Amino acid sequence: MSAPSSDVPAVPAAPCDVLVIGGGLVGLAAAWRAARRGLRTAVVDPAPASTAAASHAAAGMLAPVSEVTYTEEPLLRLGLASLERWPAFAAELSADSGHDLDYRTDGTLEVAFGSDDLAALDELAGFMGRLGLPVERLTGRECRRLEPMLAPAVRGGLLAPGDAWVDPRRVTRALLAALERRGVTMVPARAAGLERSGETVVGVRLAPAGGSPDGRPPSPGEPPGEPSGEPPHGGVILAERVILAAGAWSGAARWLPPEVVPPVRPVKGQIMRLRSPEPILRHCVRGSVHGSYVYLVPRGDGELVLGATQEELGFDTRVTAGGLWELLRDARELVPGVTELELADVVAGLRPGTPDNLPLIGPTVLPGLSLATGHHRGGVLLTPLTTALLMDEAGDHEELAALCSPLRFQEQR
After folding, report:
1. DSSP calls for 281-298
2. The pTM is what?
């Protein structure tokens, strides 16, 4: 990974084949897949894999079956297609980076606490059955046989044995290591504009350090500022193809031409990380407590992730007492032992949401510019499919590509 000099950012000496704007999980993964194909690749981000990235606050559930909802069958299709790619994706990234991703395939156990929760679960089971999804209906006793730490009050559940999960923080660290081994240039700067030749995007202009792309100080709603000591300014990076993967901030990029500004908004989510000497759960557990949903995701090292709220509060990343109290309250009803665990971390992240909850992946109306954003709560799950679609490695998946195409919003504009 190229290191910046003391005067200017590490700008590639020659034009890039692929230039990715955004150093979150999706952006880093896109750069990695491009580099694996032998393409000259660079990533522009003031702080790649920072705590502001949505993946830093994500639990990492790869659970298209247990997270299915009644109005999102297209998203289910995308999730199932991406889940199929996760084993190969994880194996290749581990081999390329030398990192363990804590990728686990023990399935998701969805449980109901009260009678109303159980009725809703029964209805969901019927919907899953009509879709032909592989789930198993369980009694409360059968749930506790699988997970002895569950409360006696748990009334019943559904087991989705094909679901999996991974540690997103490990994945981003692995991607950074893999990018370094592949010689990808990391440019610690902000994008300030597109370099164009006619209507074709041929590169990116960089912003001065310490300010937003339009020259004013960053507002609280913008990505974190550059680290202290960062070079004063950048210039232009030429590229055959530019991929915007700036997560929740993609829709706030004022330097984009209006016709390609993605309809992306931030959706806040708060999570809590607990720690115990040994894992207290074997499966990922999702539960409904009087209509309120919570999930508990175990890590191999004994960490347990509780999440997550969904709040439409703009670029607010405050961790609130009320949000954490709701998580702990509901988690305790399902697994009483969580209150005995050590509190390791609390964090709020911003998911990039779209009007139809489907991601934006692929070419825009501007030749040379593609999007990889808008993944909402499915960013980790959809990463392998996203990179495959971007790199034309998805095979005969024109229908999936059409579901994600940024062009679907052009008529609405």
Report:
1. -SSEEEEEETTEEEEEEE
2. 0.90
